[in-house]
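User: Teach me something about this protein's shape.
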Amino acid sequence: MIIDEFNRIHNYLRISITDNCNLRCFYCMPEEDYEFTPTSRLMQAHEIEALAKIFVSQGVNKIRLTGGEPLVRKDAAAIILALSKLPVTLTLTTNGTRLHEFTGILEEANVRSLNISLDTLKAEKFQLVTRRNQFDQVMKNIELLLKKDFHVKLNVVVMSGLNDNEINDFIEWTKFTPVHVRFIEFMPFSGNRWTSNKVFTMQQMLDVIEEKYSFIRLKDEVHDTAKKYMVPGHAGTFAIISTMSANFCGDCNRIRLTADGKMKNCLFSKDEIDLLTALREGREILPLIHSGIQKKAKELGGQFTPDFELIHAEDIHNRSMITIGG
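Assistant: First, the predicted structure itself:
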């Protein structure tokens, strides 16, 4: 097992397979003309599989593929199918633009649940946030997945003054549509122009929802990052990921592997372990994994405190979200 000094068992691996993306969301990608990592420095498909097998040998039983946008990688299908043969629950996070090309592959790989990033239900605002005109395609693909009985989770990064006025539009969507909407507090990363006054907190979200709907708290599963709720009678549900105002670090079971093969023991950690170079040089990987997890901070990567209003984003040493993989 992979255990840190706070006795947290890590059995969930998030693998970024690319830092490339066909959208340009400002909170994820620092700039329009972003310089992507050269292919030679990315993990190759066989290297992803090799590293995944090492983690699985240590008790990892869930793998999530992320990016960038994982489905823009040319060998994404091969990677998905290879990892599906491991004894894990396999899933992915996507922007949804290319899902119509991959439903068959996902079904073959027995991927039945996936997360789709969607911050607005308005086409014009979608283009403002993503800098691309792909709203209709994403909505069609969500409908396609629901028809094929996939469990669809929608990741909505809520930002004060941008889309906080759409929270109840998403709740209304769950009335007849079996989607699981996850509202996410805006988090600080390199280049994403984060300021504390853009954070719309969990309590603020609940207050907004309560103005229109009565809802009940659902039971959380072990290691859940999202606090789940349901409006009685609605086909779907909603949840809130309160990283900034009420973190859930005490029960963390996540490890992250970036597209260039660096292990991060926390989304906010500044230190990384270069597993890819070690793999290519034939060095032992397990000692690196365990030593990296042993250095994991108690909360928030050791970089800031739960009092997010005192955070100065320029003092945080980290990557941009797109190079971490979420």
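Now, about its shape. The first strand starts at residue 12 and ends at 16. Residues 45-57 form the longest helix (13 residues). If you'd like, I can walk through any region in more detail.
User: That's plenty for now, thanks!
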